[in-house]
Structure formats: structure tokens, C-alpha cells
Design brief:
The structure holds 2 protein chains of 2 kinds. By secondary structure, chain A is mostly helical. Chain A contains 5 helices and no strands. In chain B, helix 4 runs antiparallel to helix 20 (450-468). Classes of the chains: A mainly alpha, B mainly alpha.
Amino acid sequence: MTPTVVLPVVIGGLYAAGVYLLLDRSLTRVLLGFLLLGNATNLLLLSTGGVAGLAPIVGISAPEQMSDPLPQALILTAIVITFGVSAFMLAVIYRSWRLVRQEVVGVDEEDRRVAAQRRTDADDLDPDQLAPEDRPAGHADSAAGRAPTDLQVERLLADRFSGIASDDVELPPTHPGQQ
Amino acid sequence: MTALLVLHLLAALAAPLLVRWWGRQAFLALALVPAAACGWVLGRLGTVTGGGDVRETTSWVPVLGLDVALRLDALALTLAALVTGVGALVLVYCARYFDPREEGTGRFAGCLTAFAGSMLLLVLADDLFVLYVAWELTTIFSFLLIGGAGTRLAGRRAASQALVLTTAGGLAMLVGLILVSDASGTHLLSALVADPGDGTVMVVGTLLVLTGAVTKSAMVPFHFWLPAAMEAPTPVSAYLHAAAMVKAGIYLVARLAPGLSDVPGWRPVLLVLGLATMLVGGYRALRQHDLKLLLAFGTVSQLGFLMVLVGAGSRELASAGLVMTVAHALFKSTLFLTVGVIDHATGVRDLRQLSGLGRQLPVLAVIGSLAAASMAGLPPLLGFVGKEAAFTALADGGLPDRTAALLVLAGLVAGSVLTAAYSARFLWGAFARKPALPDAAPPVAHAPGPLFLAAPAVLAVLGLLAGVAAPLVDHLVAAYADTLPLIAPEAEHLALWHGLQPALGLSALSLLGGAALFATRARVSAVQQRMSLRASADESYWNVLQGLDRLAVLTTGTTQRGSLPAYLGTILVVVLALPGSVLLFRAPWPEEWRAWDTPIQAMVGVVVLIAAALALRIRQRLSAVLVVGVTGYGLAVLFALQGAPDLALTQFLVETLTLVTFVLVLRKLPKDITERHRPRERVARGLLAGAMGVLMGCVGAVALASRTATPVSVDYPHEAYTFGGGKNVVNVILVDLRAWDTLGEISLLVVAATGVASLVFLRRRTGVVQRAGEELTGTAGTPAARAPRGRWLSASATLAPQRRSVVLEVVTRLLFHTIVVFSVYLLFSGHNEPGGGFAGGLVVGLALVLRYLAGGRYELGEAAPVDPGLLLGAGLLLAGGTGVVGLALGSEVLQTAILHATLPVLGEVKLVTSLFFDVGVYLIVAGLVLDVLRSLGAELDRAEDEGDPIELAPGESVLR
């Protein structure tokens, strides 16, 4: 099909204006850009329907003279949805103004916080950076240089319990503090 | 078999309830389920040893050819008996292990029973994908059981480590299973083993399946998750991490070995990893002080041993492997349960602090010694029988390659020396008197009762009995082993006494070596200390994980800078670069152009473009909104010129409503928009925007030029009239041909309306608009006292006099009902003429706008005394209901039916059911407009009138 000059130029102009406004930091301008983009897209859809024709109503115009009804149906709902979404955006603008007296697409602080983050969760830390009681079982002996050996512990315990009669069944001293 | 599985599922679901009713005694009832399963399985012993099998198939996903195929043969029976038998005993043990007051026992009981069921499914499954599902189920329950309530950091980390490793292996295995079943053209394990495919796909698939088995059974270098998993309560360690789950990898290898052991790579991978695991596990078990950890590394070591045996792919080693699997399950769960009793009785598991326990708990000491002796390979226990069989097999054959067989034999003997050494260390550590410690340190606080000791006792005695009755066990084992080729000259049968053979010497050697290692433990410990590496697989795992975390943070940090214009700019640049270059180089450019369809089109186009250009620079909010509105109205004219009256109508209405809505909000904002961009940013934006404009303009032209096929809509006019019963093709498309789309779109409108309301209303989000009461309208002294007497609108008297306009009130009074009637007319005529639910709803919305503008917020309440939420809901219900009715009448969802009837007064009436759908659309659009007016209009007015008081309940806070 043969395109017209007028429609692509209008579509391009609306897109350019819409994108320019969309890139603004003011929410009002973003919304205006959104509306312009919506208009541009609707026109683009319509123009792909082909040459202008008569209204697609049976009985008023012959089927071969009709304009393509399918893009029209798509655009019709798009128009109404654009209204719903812009009402929502307006509510956002109002809310933003009430809250912080600004209607600006600000810098996302959460994104910045993640970008600046250096630490990871404790659940993903290297075991060596954890308190000993939180280290995984079996990890302890990989850091064997610091852990005392069996013999050392046996000697240590022997020292601690020295002087206590080992067959004294009546008073089993388990904790040195109770002696 | 299906019934048994369902029984497990039901028991798992009921478990929390049972525990709440009966406390820890509920475990005894739960134990009946696996016990029953065990009884059933053992009842099939005759069939299976005779070479037969039991099969059951339930259809699962017929489209994909997936069935829940279950099969009980000798291998499955052995494993199933272990899983159910040990499961039942462990549940009995739990009835005494847990403190009656402990929290979370119900959840634990449910998970453990569900695990038993999944494990049973795993060993019974004959379908590859059912096996996979069961495999992952065991992973999940293991995760839940290790993590417990998730309050301990070490528990959480151990649980997630086990999950990450085994799931990674499981995913590799899934890919492998798909490849293998593709290469051999079957889903069924039995068919796969009988007739495996070949080629590269088969090799790759097999190796991937082995990855799953290797991670699940904790082979080097993935062995470290198993010791870490000892965070779980001891019954879990005894059941999942000794008897059942870690055997899944062994089971899978044993299951596939008859068919796949000759696949290249199979033997090298399994033998090398198995031997390495056996030695590493044994070596590290000698260094543990925690009895449970000692056993955990012992398990790692034994799993390596089993992997070598079942992976070798010969009859004699497979037979030894199956016996060892049974023996290991029996002695290792006994030992874990023993440690549990010790822990329970003394509160200590560190062998450096235990002394003289053997004398205090003699029964436990006997039980533990029996099991440890079986582990070390002492006659007449089952462990000895299995080990002896393995040595015999390797001495005579066992592997196709003699040298390899001897090397493996040497490795196994070395591993067995370590095994004997840590068995002795366990016994000494748990029960012996240590000279340096007092005789009974620490004292036994809770002496174990008979029921608590029952489970380990039964398991230990079974190990002894099975060892003595080895020839009987041989029948069962042979039924599986005979599916593999015999490499040795003759098949050796299982027995305690084979005569004086090299194997007997090797057994003695390993026991003596173990004893020697134990006797010189001080020196061994010192050597180990000196040789200790500062790195471990566990540490590497965490380093990898931390690296991943850092990479993720880095990626997020570099790509997510927090600026919306920057994100949009990136997206747009990509759009320009990719579709843009395609457009430049590949697209079919139009060969001829027309200037316009009509000259008016060009004139309107110029107006639209000028308005759009103005919108860029105007700083006054209202003016900017108005010029954008001009583009909208211009568009409506373009629609009309193109031959789209419905669009033009809708666009006019929506544009008007948008303007009103804007004004409602803009009255609360400052007059001007603050400029926040530097000149350089504006230039960049301008360049990007200009490029996008050119691109989209070209897209428009190229899209039209490349339209050569006949449009799908060419038959729509005919279909619209015959099937849809309407003359307005666009409307029929909306309510019939593409009604699903419309249903989605009106749902979106409902969401948008709800969003608007919830952003404006701080507390109450439903309800009707406030109506004017007596006190506001009638009496003198109100602000309206000097306003005109005669009331054209019921609530306009509530407005301040300076805000009232008599002309507007009169016009509204005269027009309102006319407009409403007109909207209903549009709704009903829309099927045949321009109009329809959308247009009708917008018109009634405009009528409400008129009332609101003329009479204020109370007037809106008078005009529409309904909750907008009700309108939205009713509309959606009606539209959706129409679809369901179509379904109920036997046709398709949202299909239109045409009803003819002759009524007395009206004559012939033609009713198209899609009208009801359109009524739904009408209600939703009207509801949307009302909701917007209520929120952005009336509620904002109310906030201003009343100085925005919000009565807070005590302790309530409202974010404004």
C-alpha cells in the first residue's frame, strides 16, 4: 500500500515531542509525554490500517469501501486505557506533592543503596568471618592451626581436674567452679 | 504400592495435628505407616527372589506420555525395606528423643514422614521423571529438616548449602535424564537398562546423571555438605544422612549399572571419586572430636566405598555393594542413634569430655560396639561379610582391567584400615574410661528408657543376624547381581567362612592396621596436625558463593544507577540501535508516496505538530495541558477523516475527561513547572527524541509499504453481521470477535480506578460520595444564604456564593437527564451504529462531571449515590458472567447468541447476548469516571474544606 507523507510526519513529530517530555524529571511533563506518546501510537496503528475509507458499518458503506476495522477496535480500548492510566498518574503526582512537596522523578535511593553496598548477608559469609558457634560443622578442623588437639585438651582437662579423687562417686565434680 | 505412597502423604499431613493431640507419642502412631509399608514390601520377597517383579502404573500426564510407573524388583525391594524399616524405627526413637515441651515437633514429624514417602517413591519409581520428582522431594525435605525452625544461623547455612549443592546436581541430572531417555527412546528405567542408546548424547547424558548421583551421595569434591548437615536433630542424621537419602545416589548408580556401566567415562569417574571419597572421609573422621561429626565423615568414607562397589559394573562387586549398602544402613543408623542417646543422657558429644560411659550405660555400650564392629568389618557381622565379598571379588576379577582392579583393591584396603581406626576411635571416645578425666564425666542426667534403646538395639541385632544368615541374604542379593556380567571365574556366594583366602588376610590386615593407627593415635594426630591444609572444599564453596554475591551487587550497582531518565535513555538507545539498523539496511522502503488522503488531513496535522512543539517549552502547567489536549482533539479529527467515527467519538470524550481530571489535580500544584535540567541534558534529550521521532515516522511508512497480504479483517463485516448480529463492525469486534481482549482491558480499568482511589483516600477506600444533608442545604445562616433562592440543583447551595454560576446550574439542570438518556441510547444503538459501551460510559461520566462542576462535591453525591466500587464490580461481574453463560449453554466462552422474539407492543425484537457484555463495559467506564471524580474531585475538596482533619485511633499513624 502507498503511504502518505502527512501521517508519518505527524507520527514522528508526536513521538519526538513525547520522548522529549518523557525524559524530563518533572512528573507532570512525564505524564504529558506519555499522553503524546499514546496519541502517536494510536495514530501509527490507525495509519497501518491503510488508505482512508468509509465508516465500517454494514449497510452504510459497502465492505470494499470500508476502512480497516481491526486497528480501530484496538485503538478504541487503548484510548480509554490511556485515560485510566493518566488518572492513576495524576493521583501519583498529587500524592507525591502532598508527601514531599515535589513532583519529581527522583533518584531511587534503594538502587543507590544497593550500588554502594559492600557487605553480604550473614547467611552467605565466609565461615571464617563468623562466630565459632555459627561455623558449619566440619569447618572447625580446616582451621586446625588454632584448634587444640586431643592431647592438648586431655592435658588441659587433667590439669583442671587435678587433685580430685577420680573414683569419688558421691560428688562428681563436673564444673571447676563448683569445687 | 500407590496406596502405600498415599498413606505416607496422608500421615505427613495429619502429623502436626496428631502431635498437637498426643504430644510426642504421636510418633509411635506415625511409625505404623512405614512399618506397614515394610511389611508389605517384605511380603513380596518370594516373588522377587524368584526373579519376578511387581509393577503398577497410574496415568499422570497422558499428553506427554508420563505415567507414575512403579516397579518392585530385587534392588528396589532391598532399598525399600531399608527405607521403610529404618524409617519406622527412627520414628519410634523420635517418640523418646524429643522433649515433650519442645516446639516445632509437629512440623518435624510431618517433614520426616513426608520424606519417608518421597524416598519410598524414589526407590520404587520406574519412570525416569517420577524418579526425578522424588529425588527433588527428598532434597526439599532434607532442607526443611536440616534448617529446622530457621532460628540458628549454622542450621540455615547448612540447609541452604545442602540444598544448593544437591539441587545443582539434580538439575544437571534432569538434563542428563532427558538426554538419556532421548537417546534410548524410553522413559522407563527398566527399558532403558535393558536397551540403552549409544552415541555422544548418551555419554553426555550419562555423565550428567552421574553428577546428580555424586552430589547427592556426597562424593569428593561435594562431600562437605554432609558433615555440615549434622546441624539437624540426630534422628534426621540417622535416617536421611546415613540410611536413606544419601543412598539415593548409590541406588541410582546401582540401578543404571547393568545397562550403562560400559558407557565411556562411567567407571573412571565413579572409581576415582569413590576411592578418593573413601580415603578423604576416613582420614578426616580420625580428626573429629564431635562423635556425630566423626560418624558423618565415616559416612562420607563409606559412601565412597559403596560407590566403587556398585559403580564397577560386575556381578561380584555389585553383590558385595548391595550387601554393604544394607550393612551400612544398619550399623550407621545404629551408631547415630547411639550418639543421640549419649547426647540426650549427658548433654555432651565431645569425645574429649566423655569418660566411663560404658560402665554407666552398659546396654548402650553393647549396642554401639556391635554396630562399630560391623563398621570395622569384624566377623560375624554383616559388615564383615560385605567387605570380605568385595575383597574376594577384586582379588579374582571384579573389573575388566586387572591393573585397575588391583589398584582399587589397594585403595579399598587402605580405606578399610582407616575405617577400622575410626571405629575404634568412636568406641573409645564414647564409652572408654579416659585416665585424664574423672571416671564418670559427665554424669548421666537422663537414663535412657527401654523404648529409647529399642530402635538402635533392633538395628544392631539385625546386623548380627544378617551376618550369621549371610547365605539367606545371598538369595535376594543375587537376584539383582545376576543382571550384571560376571568377570571373575566363578561367582562367590556370600558366607561368613570362605576358607583361607587372600581376602581373609586382607580383612585381618585392615583390622590390624586400624588397631595400629588407633594405638598410635597421639602420633597420628600430631602428623595430621602438621600436614593440615589451610584450605578446604567447604571454604572454597563459601568463597565461590561470596564471589557470586559480590558479582551480583557489582552488576546491580553498575547497571542500576537509580535515575529513571538514564534507564529510559538506555532503552531508547537500544531501540534506535537494533530496530533502527534493521530499518536502515533491511526494510522494504516504499517506492511511491502520496501527499495526503485529503488536504484537511494536512491542515490538522500542522495544528497537531505546532501544539506538540509548544508543549515542549511551555512552563505553565495548565497551558501545557491545554496544548497537549489540542493534539488529542486534532487526533480525533484525523480519526474521523480516516473513516473511524467510533474512534473520533471516543477520542473527543476522553480528551475532555482528561482535561477535567488534569484541572482537578493541577489546582493543588504550583502554577509553573520548575526546570530541572542543564542545557547539555536538554540537548542530549533533544537528540534522542528527534532520532526516535524519525525512527517511528519511518516505521509508520515502512509498515504500510510492506503490507502486501490480504488483511485478516477482510471478512469481518460479513462475520460481524452473521455471527455477531451487529452492523457496527468495530463494536462487534470489541464485544464478540475479540471479547477476550476487551475483558482484559476493562479489568485493567478496574485496577486503575482502584489505584487512583487508594492513592487519594488515606483510610476508607470504599463508600459513596457524601450527600448533602438537611443542615447543609435548607436553613439560613449558611454560606449560601445570599445565593439565589430557587434551587436548580439540589446541593449547589452548599457552595460558596462566589463559586456558583446560575447559568451553569440551569444548563446542567436542563441537560443532565438528557445526556444520561443519550448515553443509554449510545449503549443500545452501539451494536449497529457508532457508539457502544465505551462511548456510552464516557458520556454518562461527562454528565457527572457537569453536575460536579456546577454543584460541588455534595452535588456529585446527589447525582450518583452509589459506590463506584459497586459499579466497577458489577460491570466486571456482568461482562465475565456473559462469558460463563455462553460456556454453560454449550458454546464457547463469550460466544454471542442471537434471540428473536415477538412482543405485544414492540413488535419483533432481536436480542444479542453480547449486549450484556457491553452493559458491563458501560458500567465499568462509568464507575471509573465516578471513582476519579470522587477521589481527585470530591475527596480533595473535602480535605480542603475541613482543613484535612483525620481522626486517628490510638496507636494509628497515617502517612500523608
